[in-house]
Specification:
76% helix, globular, single chain, 280 residues, mainly alpha, two-stranded antiparallel ribbon, 1% strand
């Protein structure tokens, strides 16, 4: 049986490999090449070297959106994981209606980003109207509007991952800690959190990458207003590529830089949290 699987392995892998090559590898390599070109379409691309990459750092909107996105990601990673962990701890206790609460918390994750953006745009602008303000009054309003939206959408999803991790903690460990005289805080610090490191790794990775890649919600909630001050990286790249004629190559170069930044951060975070898992 094992020999038969090895013999026919290429046949099963080939369709996936072809699809992956056509759908990812070829567009990815083409995108990198175009980042070194001036073009309006692929057929008229003209190689110009590193000019597009140099323009990135003279474009104040990119630098601002990079800073804005970084701050947003830091805030959402901390708040989403903290709230998701707290909710997961509460919903793993023996109380009635936990399944209903889990479903209610998870449901916002099923709604598309554009729809969520418009829903919260109406809600938050309605509240701010009491003070004659809107989300686009300043970048600060847009920032916290996006934070609230992301919390509402993703806390329930991360909660499910934390619940799965909590339920996999052997009850014997908790009982042993209680027998040794550990209070609730000590049980949390020395038993629960170390045992949850795999879940923390996954949730941190997801919230980190989701924060940096945020696009739909940003487009629908503020569209970068006022004056691109609430524009995040993904939206900045989109607006550069499609909204600034002659800057298509710069937009492509921004996309490559964006990919590198997210890749480095994701790999670094994953290694750091994995090392914590080994220590635990």
């Amino acid at each position: 049986m094992e020999k038969a699987i090895k013999r026919y392995f290429p046949i099963f892998v080939l369709p996936t490999l072809v699809a992956f090559t056509i759908g990812f590898i070829i567009p990815f390599i083409t995108g990198i090449y175009l980042s070194f070109c001036k073009f309006t379409t692929i057929t008229d691309a003209k190689f110009i070297g590193f000019s597009n990459y140099l323009k990135i750092w003279t474009d104040g909107t990119f630098v601002h959106s990079l800073w804005y996105t970084t701050m947003f990601t830091i805030v959402t990673v901390v708040l989403i994981n903290l709230l998701a962990f707290i909710v997961a701890m509460l919903l793993t206790r023996k109380i009635k209606g936990t399944n209903i609460f889990r479903t209610v918390f998870f449901m916002p994750n099923l709604i598309g980003g554009i729809i969520l953006g418009y829903i919260w745009n109406l809600l938050l602008n309605g509240i701010l109207a009491l003070w004659d303000k809107t989300l686009t009054y300043s970048s600060t309003y847009g920032f916290w509007g996006l934070v609230i939206l992301m919390l509402w959408q993703q806390v329930g999803y991360m909660m499910i991952i934390y619940i799965a991790g909590i339920q996999n903690i052997p009850g014997d460990l908790i009982e042993a800690a209680e027998i040794d005289g550990a209070n609730k805080w000590q049980q949390l610090r020395y038993v629960t959190i170390p045992m949850l490191m795999p879940s923390i790794t996954v949730c941190t990775f997801l919230t980190l990458t989701n924060g940096f890649k945020l696009f739909d919600q940003n487009l629908a909630l503020t569209n970068g207003e006022p004056s691109d001050m609430s524009e995040m990286l993904a939206l900045n790249i989109f607006n550069t590529f499609y909204g600034r004629p002659g800057w298509e190559g710069v937009g492509q170069a921004k996309a490559v830089v964006f990919f590198i930044i997210v890749g480095i951060i994701a790999i670094t975070q994953n290694r750091l949290t994995r090392s914590k898992e080994v220590q635990a």
